Amino acid sequence: MEIKANTLVHIDYTLTNNEGQVLDSSEGKQPLAYIHGHGNIIPGLEQAIEGKCKGDELSVIVPAADAYGEHREDLVQEVPKDAFAGVDNVEPGMRFNAETNQGQIAVTVTNVTTDTVTVDANHELAGQELNFVVKVQDVREATEEELAAGAAA
Hints:
Elements: E1 7-16, E2 22-25, E3 32-35, H1 43-49, E4 57-62, E5 76-80, E6 95-100, E7 103-112, E8 116-120, E9 130-141, H2 144-149
Antiparallel strand pairs: 1-2, 1-3, 1-9, 4-9, 5-8, 6-7, 7-8
């Protein structure tokens, strides 16, 4: 069976950056299961897997625009340090959920001064080209329950 919309797909994968550093992998874990065509994985990878079958292996280079998007400077801002009241020691690399007009978003602290904290709401992989090695382990039609839930049963 070919991978197409509304199929449940199981893949083994390794994700690396352009320097060859492994960023994520299913090695030693269960294959990643997702429903194809429902936006459960990044668009560039989903497009590359479309039409593949069980047993197919492929290497895919996904440009930033088709992965987590380009890095957007408008998602980086300085906020007063007192916005972190109750946090003893704010340091770069810490992650917080920030309340915005659009709801909660995850932000990462990138810089701390005496009075301000710089936070970045970009995904940590935004702006990066991503390299995947994928093996399709299984493909089948998703059940009605899986489609309703948007995930494997």
